[in-house]
Specification:
Chain lengths: ~280, ~400
């Protein structure tokens, strides 16, 4: 059976473009708005949805996604709640790949086996866990593979020739190239850096390679998607939430409509930059 | 002959950096190549006589080691039980044990060709020690410190600035040590190729817990020799306070295989364990993964980290070094706690009876000693790690003592 992730890449390839992935945090700013945002992402032609699992101490994230996590937690989001959001998403959108992204501790506390069973059952396709390098593969990566979930690896500018095969050895789904040495939402990468990295990574793996961290505009998304197999945008979308929430900390109608419009522009940017 | 004692508690961690189930390397991929490089450089340094010689030189002539092991006659008389000895690491240059570790790591950074240093700090003692080493070795120094701690440990902020370090106040979370560590890690992720991160306690990803312990073990090695010289035998009980656990690991490690030595680690109970407002990760926490390692943490049932509370900025941390978690699971070390109020009383008692103004951190340990030492025999021996002096705490402590009519 072809996975949803593989199908998404194949579809984009047949249109001569890369994929667009968008990251939002589950339950940000509140559960209902979060659901509406997820629907808007699909309507605006996002190819892969990355759903952040909120964590109190997101060590690899910049201020925008830190704040998103705190908003979601403050409004009661939990890992169990995130899995429910995922389940609802899958019922409404049978084809769009859904990847959960976050940190290990909430999963560890939920229980690895229980988490994998519930995530599979909810229709999650893959996991990106920031603080689980290959050295800790027996914690989650290996059990995830057994449960049929892709374990998507982050490759960074510091992943040297010796490191790349180690990182990619147990990777599946796709490879997430972190285009900057740094945390989310802080700076953006130069085109020649992305091209060089794409070449380096593709020499070691057959998996598609997408570029993320620091992509903020439709132009940058188009460029990154044409230089690799796709672009992922997070902080720039999440900032729209911060800018549009009401005094009560909940989302407003503007929250969803502005995100839909912005993500539509990102999709156009990616579609326009066929490469 | 190399004699590998399989029953020894002193040969942890394993090659994955595990102490039993604790420890490990739970970090972002950006940091992995660097952490592996730190590990191999550290391993090379430990077998290099020049490295040992250089470190010993600075420990002796710059820090003032060995620190005395002082028989606290008046406290002993006050409690009316076992003999109390204080391991006087508060006399070190910069006023705490932190410099022991910092010099080791700074020399390692130098060996690795790194001249830019990052550090997190709670009480500011680790920040001051790092700023000091950076001045000494001509390195750039960036210190991350929670804004609440910037306020309550102001003298140390001033010292760091004077020493040429840049202090970054951290506003996220409760603005204490946990948040400073998050921010230092974020900064490191963004500057992994150029900067060396000098972690201030026995936490973080492997090899930090092991490396920091090794550098701090000078405390226990000296204390062992000194008590043999003074009393002709090992102590019955040794006690140290625990924030992340570096001064405690430093004292404990050389004694771990001495079954007759009872060991106590004293965590901060803040306003009391039942109040939920404390920093006692072992007494009140559960195993989880934070800041690069698995260890006992204060967290809720969704795995979200709960903020710690302590009068002492140096103990105000929701985790603990992984080796302590293992020693707790193994039941080799007894982990107990002391509240804010108890620490305040011990702070004042030690000042009045010994003419030694202790830091709030070891005041927690002294407070616990007060609960057991009176019931011990007069020929028994207790060693307490006096790991820091209290100058930095006067601004916070004096108003509290006055408020309580104690001064
Ligand atoms: C004097 C003193 N003692 C103890 C600590 C706590 O750290 P650790 O448990 O690593 O010794 C600190 C930390 O700032 C300190 O300054």
């Amino acid at each position: 059976m072809t996975s949803r992730i593989n199908t998404a890449f194949a579809n984009a390839r047949s249109e001569g473009r890369g994929i667009l992935g968008v990251f939002v945090t589950a339950g940000d700013p509140d559960r209902q708005t979060s659901e509406a945002i997820l629907d808007a992402l699909v309507d605006s032609k996002v190819d892969i949805v990355e759903l952040g699992m909120p964590f109190s101490d997101p060590m690899a994230d910049g201020p925008a996604i830190q704040a998103a996590s705190l908003r979601a937690l403050k409004n009661g989001m939990t890992l169990a709640g995130t899995l429910e959001l995922a389940r609802g998403f899958r019922q409404r959108h049978p084809d769009t790949p859904l990847v959960l992204m976050g940190y290990y501790n909430p999963i560890y506390i939920y229980g690895v086996d229980r988490f994998l069973a519930d995530a599979s059952d909810a229709g999650v396709d893959g996991l990106i866990i920031v603080d689980l390098p290959p050295e800790e593969d027996d914690e989650l990566c290996e059990p995830a593979a057994e449960a049929g979930l892709d374990f998507i690896r982050l490759v960074t500018p510091t992943s040297n020739e010796k490191r790349l095969p180690v990182v990619l050895g147990s990777a599946s789904g796709f490879v997430y190239y972190v285009a900057i040495t740094g945390i989310t939402g802080t700076r953006s990468a130069a085109a020649d850096t992305i091209s060089a990295a794409y070449k380096r990574i593709s020499a070691v793996t057959d998996l598609p390679v997408v570029t993320g961290f620091g992509i903020r505009t439709p132009g940058q998304a188009g460029e990154a998607a044409s230089l690799s197999d796709g672009a992922i945008v997070g902080s720039a979308v999440v900032e729209i939430i911060a800018d549009t929430i009401g005094a009560d900390g909940n989302g407003t109608p503007e929250t969803v409509s502005k995100i839909a419009a912005f993500v539509g522009d990102l999709a156009d940017g990616v579609a326009a930059a066929k490469g | 002959m190399t004699d590998v004692n399989l029953n020894s508690l002193r040969n942890q961690p394993d090659e994955r950096g595990r102490f039993g189930m604790h420890g490990g390397r739970f970090v972002a991929e950006t940091l992995m190549p660097l952490i592996l490089q730190v590990e191999s450089s550290y391993r090379a340094a430990t077998t290099d006589a020049d490295f040992a010689r250089e470190l010993a030189y600075y420990q002796t002539h710059y820090v003032g080691r060995p620190s005395p092991l002082y028989f606290a006659e008046r406290l002993t008389a006050h409690y009316g039980g076992a003999k109390l000895y204080l391991k006087r690491d508060e006399l070190n240059h910069t006023g705490a044990h932190k410099i022991n570790n910092v010099l080791g790591q700074a020399l390692l950074a130098k060996r690795m060709g790194k001249t830019k240093i990052i550090a997190e700090t709670g009480a500011g003692q680790h920040g001051v020690a790092t700023a000091t080493a950076c001045a000494l070795f001509d390195m750039e120094c960036e210190v991350f410190m929670g804004e609440e701690d910037v306020r309550r440990q102001k003298p140390n902020v001033d010292r760091m600035r004077l020493l040429g370090a840049k202090v970054h106040p951290v506003t996220s979370g409760t603005g204490t040590l946990k948040d400073a560590m998050n921010e230092a890690l974020r900064y490191w992720v963004a500057n992994a190729e150029t900067h060396f991160y000098i972690i201030g306690t026995v936490a973080g990803p492997h090899p930090y817990p092991q490396m920091v312990r090794d550098f701090q073990s000078v405390i226990g090695k000296e204390a062992r020799q000194q008590i043999m010289d003074a009393e002709g035998r090992l102590p019955d009980t040794i006690v140290a306070c625990i924030g992340g656990g570096s001064n405690a690991m430093g004292l404990f490690h050389p004694f771990l295989d001495d079954e007759d030595v009872t060991i106590y680690g004293v965590e901060a109970a803040g306003k009391g364990i039942p109040s939920g407002l404390h920093a006692a990760s072992l007494t009140g926490g559960t195993p989880g993964v934070l800041h690069g390692n698995r260890t006992y943490l204060l967290q809720d049932d969704d795995g979200q980290i709960i903020d710690a509370h302590s009068i002492s900025a140096g103990l105000d941390y929701p985790g603990i070094g992984p080796e302590h978690s293992w020693l707790h699971d193994m039941k080799r070390v007894n982990y107990v706690s002391a509240t804010d109020e108890e620490a305040l009383d011990a702070f004042q008692l030690c000042s009045r009876l010994e003419g030694i103004i202790p830091a709030l951190e070891p005041s927690h340990a002294l407070s616990f000693v007060g609960t057991i030492i009176g019931d011990m025999d007069k020929d028994e021996i207790v060693i307490l790690n006096m790991c820091g002096r209290g100058d930095k705490d006067l601004g916070a402590v004096l108003p509290m003592l006055e408020e309580r009519g104690k001064l």
